[in-house]
Amino acid sequence: MDERGALTSDLMQKRDRLQAQAQRHREARDKLNDETKRHSAKRDEFNAQVRAIVDRANAHKAKRDELNAKVHEAKSKRDELNVTAHEKTEALAAMRKEKGGGPAQSSGIPIPKLRAEIQHLEYQQQTTVLTPKKEKELIDLIGTKLRELKEREAAYEEHADVKKAWEDMKTAKAAAEEQHHAVTLLANEAQGEHDSMVKLYHEADGVRKLADAEQGEFVKHKIEADRTHHEFVEAISAIRDIERVAGALRGTTPRGEREGPQSSDQAAAQSVAEGIFDKFRKGEKLSTEDLMALQKAGRL
């Protein structure tokens, strides 16, 4: 086998090795791209979940802020009603003092407090196991306080102005208590919205970490896929170079059969060509300039 045939055979063996290598790179690249797509899809799925959770959390936040504004308004109104109730209480006290104290002198306990004591004693009677003697004593005490309450309230009925002050005070206090109850309900509702918001934000953070993990895997596989693709492209490029040179070698007439004596320029070109063939023999890749040099030397 002449030099050209031997070189062609070597090139074909190298081409076969490169084709097997390119096939491995392509299969590895395709698998990596599949993994990249899988992680990308999973990341997008998690991110969609995060957006949905955050939207729900933001809805609770908006509701909470709306309720907090209502709480602020309700508190302002409650404070106004408390001031009114206090003024009415002061007005009643001044009227009682002007009329000599009235029923308040029989007991230093305000009527609302006396009424609360009676309710407490009645509850104690209903829920506590007592001896007959203790129960009778408790019933007698409740009766005494009920009579006192009735007498003191009746005393206010005797004077129209005192009665009016008494009713105004009770109405003002009832309004203040009702408004306080409204504040409590609104505040509790706002707190519930806040708790729901915080819970959802924590949930979104957990899902976001999953999305970040998938993004990390996506980037890792993408980098590896790009690297493998580059190796695949290099192998294909080398195969094409080999096939071009091998094809030229097969179709070229031996130099000695068609050439006469070489000029110094031709000899130099042939020397360069031999050097290029040596590169191929060593397995090095030929550049475009190398191929042009081979053509100029009549070797392609």
Structure commentary:
α1 runs antiparallel to α4 and α6 (264-281) crosses α7 (288-296). The protein has helices spanning 3-98, 111-127, 132-157, 160-251, 255-258, 264-281, 288-296. Among the domains are: 26-99 and 159-214; 252-296, no CATH class. It is mainly α. The protein is built from seven helices and no strands. The radius of gyration is 50 Å and the shape is rod-shaped.
Strand content of the residues, in percent?
under 5%
Overall pLDDT: 83
Poorly predicted regions are 101-107, 253-262
Global geometry: rod-shaped
Question: In sequence order, what are the helices and strands, one letter per element?
Answer: HHHHHHH
The number of E-state strands comes to 0
Distance between the termini: 19 Å
Q: What is Rg?
A: 50 Å
Biggest sheet character = none
How does the helix and strand content classify structurally? mainly alpha
Provide a count of the helices: 7
Q: Which percent range fits the helix content?
A: over 70%
Topology:
Blueprint: H1 3-98, H2 111-127, H3 132-157, H4 160-251, H5 255-258, H6 264-281, H7 288-296
Give short descriptive properties of this protein.
7 helices, about 300 residues, mainly alpha, about 85% helix
Quick description:
The protein has 300 residues and is mainly α.
